[in-house]
């Protein structure tokens, strides 16, 4: 993150001797050489002893009264020696102590300095050690930049003579070399470390010997226990080399280690013990023999500046002292050093400068995670002290504080909200002061904790960034776009993105120089911001292609996800990504595997396209495993693993974050396999189903958090800094993300034919917690809109439009999830489908306006397939959508193939739900489809024909002829998948053509011929067998009306007509009165069942119990009214009620009188249109036409008992 950087370039309010401001971590050590204000330095400064008198040159140098004079002497003297050069630097430091910046600048560029540097470099071996240290210190105080060879020579002498050097001189030298930015300081720190280690080993050996002697002398238990207690209470002594150093030198040494990233556990532990010891005694090192004054508490003597440097160093080293006592003693409490340091900070917080506060905050955020919980009190105190003083903070200090507060970890989890919100309020007024590094760092910190500042704050930041963008590095641009992409409610200005694109493309080679993580972050930000630029994406793909071998799996996943989200297909990069996945499959996290596979599926590119052997193979002892098979096998092993937040096992058994699939990742993985048409295996499907079942059973309705923005920041304490897949957090109960994952998984199951009842029952039970709740109340809406009302008026329309767009996007996502889940449950025919769809209906009705026409078709088809009748309002809305689609097609000069396909689907779905659309609308649909029938599959055309016939609508002859002619030509002469008609579609088409009386058409004859020669024989589905019987009977009745033709038709009936009793159950005997009336009222002209025209004895099929009950109720109602009636069953299974008897002179050939009329029950579902109750549908319509062909008037049984009796009596009166 841009904010996580060293703050050594920051400035403090105090000034050093050259007038420049100084960092608190750059605290100056004591300067013993300059305490003597006489015109000559200490003896070692000029390298002479007390017996050697000073030379004339030395006297001239010491007696100079200005910097120019002393430099003139140094430059003009031919006898200048290394010791004299050291004297010149010492004199310059004394003379320029109060000088202005101009004099200092003039001295830094004097031509005599290079000569002095050369003399010091070659004469370093002859100079005393303290003179060398003084040279380094004076270069720091004067602001000089000596050449690296000089620093290397001085460092070499320090390392060689370190055993004889005073520890204080070594610490001062390390501090000065760090200030001079010398890269070879590690050699000096290594020498110090070796010195400390050697003394520590000697001390340890001495302690071991002493301990052994003590143990030999301990003969009794009481004496041994007393000595143990004394040893536990005794402080661990630091190494002697460190024990003589004062606290300031110890802090400086630790700071030098931190700046150089030099990590040595013995050295750091020794510094910590020495700090505790010298701070506890209230003074400097332990080298003196005088009395010391005890301090009030350990580390209490450290100044705010030293405490700031202490925490900064520990954060830089990512280290805390372990604080073990001497060997053999039990360890001290692990938080002791930090506890005392934190207590000292809290006591002196009012005295801290802004830079000190930011340093301590940054150091806390960088401590090891195990030590951070103990720092929560200090973090809270820091937040309380810093928030009111943010106006006094420098821009870099402000950025550093915000970055620290936003860092993941428990230290700031309870205090970050106040700091983050207060810092955001500083941006509008100080945006002109912020550099791109500070501004990008603050925005990335906001995005890390999922805090979205008000639009006014972000607008001010974007205006400043637009001004700075041409010079912003590509790495900072990646963080900027990533940060803006994680603020979903804010609409990033398009001009800013255009400027960012120009800056990226204008930096030649900048993209190729990015780190893999920065490139991935840049791609992900562009994708989430929906900014499409083909040229920029091509450049990004080329850069990613060049670094794919060294790219981390997560970075590769983020890059592919962004390209897939924008539908940009870089084929060369995809081939490289497939090889990367094959070679590093074990290194890929489960979520990265899911994202990569989802990207391939979204782009429609098989990972092994065009490669030998079906694609790249993973490493295998034998021939290797194909990539998709390897991914499926690896995912099956990981799918059953639970993430830490879902595991209920003992402590320590949970997996680390990222080692287990999230529910969203599992849904993305299965969706990819389904889209790529590769079956992943039953093991993976079963494991995914079990994971979802376990999660769904734990779902509870979501509770809205209170507290506004502060609670939102607080809730995201440990939010990850980089996300995958749209953001890619796992959804929780009540979150649309979980509903989306559930629906995608169900859709994938339907593609694989994996019907798991437990999965869908769990989904059904969890739906109340998953589906969106009711709209918020008015007070809640006002509360949510209150921050927006405080924004400037010119910002409100843009933000309101963006929020409306987000609401539409969320509504469309929920509508898609509802339709996909309904479709999958109905397609798989699981037992939970009817209750599941019933629970989905309220949410589907609420999101009907957000459904696309295709999603609406899926939903209607699922309802019809599962036998769930939706409310009439939903069907009316679907009919209106159909009318709008027809109007749009007519306005465009005709329907396109996609619109024609949707028209067929909607007509078929509405008919399946017993809804009869207007005749004009159905005619317009058929006419629109007829215009582009060759581009519509034969299956959809068959559904269109059946849909019109099912509701009793006869399309216009010309349009119907165009559809049937195209179907006949394609089914008879064409080849291809679009001309294949499966058995259900063939049966529906045959039934529809018979219901539309297309007996003479070529298509009907061809379909009837195919129906007698089905590839699998007689269909097993009862519904298809019934429809075949209905079509055959209807054809026999309406096309061959005379008895001779009917008998001939009975001889050629297919096999399903010869066994009509297979699906029928036992016939219950009616009571004597009903049986007698039935015999008297039976029709006798042709009593055979086989011809399909007569009336057979009643036989009830199990699936027709409701129809039989309705027919029996109608029969009893007529009998109670004195009308002769009896219950009959047609040969294709329909129950009817015949009533009335013909006059005695009009009896049939068997001597019995014929019935005068019949009642076709239509009160059960699907027998009459829900929007036109007197309009019979489907089987009831066939029954009506069969009876009409036999000369029997039909009364639709759709009314109540009284209306039915009155209607029947009126019909009998007309007949007689």
TrEMBL record:
One of its GO terms (molecular function) is RNA binding. Residues 1-26, 203-220, 778-790, 1083-1101 have a biased composition (Low complexity). GO terms for cellular component: chloroplast; mitochondrial matrix; ribonucleoprotein granule. One of its GO terms (biological process) is mitochondrial RNA processing. Residues 1-57, 203-238, 772-812, 1061-1101 are annotated as: Disordered. Residues 1070-1082 have a biased composition (Acidic residues). Residues 221-236, 791-808 have a biased composition (Basic and acidic residues). InterPro entries: FAST_kinase (IPR050870). It comes from the Eukaryota. PANTHER family: FAST LEU-RICH DOMAIN-CONTAINING, LD45607P. This is RAP domain-containing protein. It comes from Chlorella variabilis.
């Amino acid at each position: 993150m841009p904010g996580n950087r060293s703050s050594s370039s920051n400035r403090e309010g105090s000034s050093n001797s050259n007038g420049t401001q100084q960092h608190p971590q750059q605290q100056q050590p004591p300067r013993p050489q300059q305490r003597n204000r006489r015109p000559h330095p200490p003896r070692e400064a000029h390298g002479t002893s007390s017996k050697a008198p000073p030379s004339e040159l030395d006297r001239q140098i010491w007696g100079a009264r200005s910097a120019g004079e002393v430099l003139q002497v140094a430059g003009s003297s031919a006898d200048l020696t290394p010791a004299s050069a050291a004297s010149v630097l010492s004199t310059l430091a004394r003379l320029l102590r109060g000088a202005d910046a101009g004099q200092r600048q003039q001295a830094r560029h004097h031509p005599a300095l290079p000569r002095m540097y050369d003399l010091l470099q070659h004469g370093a071996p002859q100079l005393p050690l303290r003179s060398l240290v003084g040279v380094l210190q004076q270069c720091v105080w004067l602001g000089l930049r000596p050449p690296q060879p000089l620093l290397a020579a001085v460092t070499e002498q320090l390392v060689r003579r370190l055993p004889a050097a005073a520890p204080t001189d070594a610490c001062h030298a390390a501090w000065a070399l760090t200030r001079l930015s010398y890269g070879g300081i590690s050699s000096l720190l290594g020498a110090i470390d070796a010195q400390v280690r050697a003394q520590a080993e000697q001390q340890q050996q001495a302690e071991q010997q002493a301990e052994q002697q003590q143990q030999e002398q301990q003969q009794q238990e009481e004496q041994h226990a007393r000595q143990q207690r004394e040893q536990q209470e005794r402080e661990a002594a630091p190494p002697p080399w460190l024990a003589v150093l004062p606290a300031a030198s110890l802090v400086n040494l630790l700071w030098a280690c931190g700046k150089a990233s030099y990590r040595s556990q013995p050295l750091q532990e020794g510094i910590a013990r020495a700090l505790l010891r010298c701070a506890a005694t209230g003074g400097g090192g332990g080298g003196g023999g005088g009395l010391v004054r005890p301090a009030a508490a350990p580390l209490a003597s450290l100044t705010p500046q030293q405490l700031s440097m202490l925490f900064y160093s520990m954060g830089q080293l990512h280290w805390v002292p372990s604080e073990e006592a001497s060997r053999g003693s039990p360890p001290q409490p692990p938080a002791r050093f930090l506890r005392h340091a934190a207590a000292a900070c809290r006591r002196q917080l009012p005295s801290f400068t802004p830079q000190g506060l930011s340093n301590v905050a940054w150091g806390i955020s960088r401590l090891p995670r195990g030590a951070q919980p103990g720092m929560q009190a200090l973090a809270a105190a820091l937040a309380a002290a810093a928030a009111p003083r943010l106006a006094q903070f420098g821009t870099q200090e402000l950025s550093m504080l915000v970055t620290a507060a936003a860092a993941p970890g428990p230290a700031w989890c309870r205090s970050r909200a106040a700091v983050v919100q207060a810092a955001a309020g500083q941006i509008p007024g100080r945006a002109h002061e912020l550099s791109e590094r500070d501004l990008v760092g603050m925005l990335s910190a906001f995005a890390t904790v999922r805090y979205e500042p008000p639009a006014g704050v972000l607008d001010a930041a974007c205006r400043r960034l637009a001004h700075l963008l041409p010079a912003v590095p590509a790495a900072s641009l990646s963080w900027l776009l990533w940060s803006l992409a994680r603020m979903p409610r804010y609409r990033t200005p398009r001009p800013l993105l255009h400027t960012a694109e120009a800056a990226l493309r204008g930096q030649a080679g900048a993209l190729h120089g990015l780190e893999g993580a920065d490139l991935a972050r840049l791609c992900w930000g562009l994708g989430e911001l929906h900014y499409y630029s083909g040229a920029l994406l091509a450049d990004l793909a080329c850069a990613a292609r060049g670094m794919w071998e060294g790219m981390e799996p997560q970075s590769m996943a983020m890059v592919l996800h962004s390209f897939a989200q924008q539908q940009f297909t870089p084929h060369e990069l995809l081939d490289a990504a497939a090889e990367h996945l094959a070679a590093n499959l074990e290194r890929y996290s489960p979520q990265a595997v899911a994202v990569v596979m989802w990207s391939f599926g979204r782009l429609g590119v098989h990972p092994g396209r065009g490669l030998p052997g079906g694609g790249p193979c993973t490493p295998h002892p034998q021939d290797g495993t194909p990539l998709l098979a390897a991914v499926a096998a690896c995912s099956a092993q990981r799918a059953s693993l639970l993430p830490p937040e879902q595991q209920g096992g003992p402590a320590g058994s949970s997996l680390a974050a990222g080692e287990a699939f999230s529910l969203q990742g599992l849904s993305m993985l299965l969706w990819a396999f389904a889209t790529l048409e590769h079956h992943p295996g039953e093991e993976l499907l079963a494991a995914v189903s079990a994971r979802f079942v376990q999660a769904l059973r734990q779902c509870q309705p979501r509770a809205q958090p209170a507290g506004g923005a502060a609670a939102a920041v607080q809730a995201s304490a440990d939010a990850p800094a980089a996300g995958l897949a749209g953001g890619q957090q796992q959804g929780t109960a009540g979150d649309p993300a979980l509903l989306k994952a559930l629906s995608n998984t169900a859709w994938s199951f339907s593609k694989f034919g994996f019907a798991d009842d437990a999965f869908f029952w769990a989904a059904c039970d969890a739906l109340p917690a998953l589906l969106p709740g009711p709209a918020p109340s008015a007070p809640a809406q006002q509360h949510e809109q209150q921050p927006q009302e405080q924004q400037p008026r010119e910002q409100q329309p843009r933000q309101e439009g963006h929020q409306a767009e987000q609401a539409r996007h969320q509504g469309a996502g929920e509508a898609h999830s509802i339709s996909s889940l309904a479709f999958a449950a109905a397609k798989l025919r699981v037992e939970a489908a009817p209750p599941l769809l019933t629970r989905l209906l309220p949410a589907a009705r609420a999101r009907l306006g957000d459904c696309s026409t295709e999603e609406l078709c899926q939903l209607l088809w699922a309802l019809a397939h599962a036998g769930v009748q939706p409310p009439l309002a939903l069907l009316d809305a679907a009919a209106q959508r159909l009318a709008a689609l027809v109007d749009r097609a007519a306005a465009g000069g005709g329907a396109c193939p996609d619109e024609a396909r949707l028209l067929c689907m909607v007509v078929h779905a509405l008919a399946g739900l017993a809804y009869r659309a207007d005749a004009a609308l159905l005619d317009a649909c058929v006419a629109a489809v007829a215009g582009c029938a060759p581009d519509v599959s034969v299956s959809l055309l068959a559904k269109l024909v059946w849909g019109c016939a099912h509701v009793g609508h006869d399309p216009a002859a010309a349009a119907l002829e165009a559809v049937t002619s195209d179907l006949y030509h394609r089914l008879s002469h064409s080849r291809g998948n679009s001309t294949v008609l499966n058995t259900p579609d063939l049966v529906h088409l045959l039934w529809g053509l018979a219901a539309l009386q297309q007996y003479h058409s070529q298509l009907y004859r061809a379909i009837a011929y195919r129906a007698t020669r089905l590839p699998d024989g007689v269909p097993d589905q009862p519904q298809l067998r019934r429809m075949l019987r209905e079509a055959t009977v209807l054809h026999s009745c309406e096309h061959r009306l005379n008895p001779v033709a009917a008998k001939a038709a009975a001889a050629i009936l297919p096999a399903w007509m010869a066994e009509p009793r297979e699906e029928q159950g036992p016939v219950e005997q009616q009571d004597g009165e009903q049986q007698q009336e039935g015999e008297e009222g039976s029709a006798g002209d042709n009593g055979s069942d086989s011809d399909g025209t007569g009336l057979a004895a009643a036989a009830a099929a199990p699936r027709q119990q409701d129809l039989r009950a309705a027919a029996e109720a109608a029969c009893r109602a007529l009998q109670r009214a004195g009308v002769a009636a009896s219950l009959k069953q047609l040969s294709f299974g329909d129950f009817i009620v015949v009533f009335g008897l013909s006059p005695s002179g009009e009896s049939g050939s068997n001597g019995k009188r014929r019935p005068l009329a019949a009642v076709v029950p239509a009160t059960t579902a699907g027998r009459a249109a829900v929007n036109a109750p007197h309009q019979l549908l489907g089987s009831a319509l066939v029954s009506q036409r069969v009876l009409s062909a036999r000369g029997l008037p039909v009364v639709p049984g759709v009314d109540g008992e009284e209306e039915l009796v009155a209607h029947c009596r009126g019909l009998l009166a007309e007949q007689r």
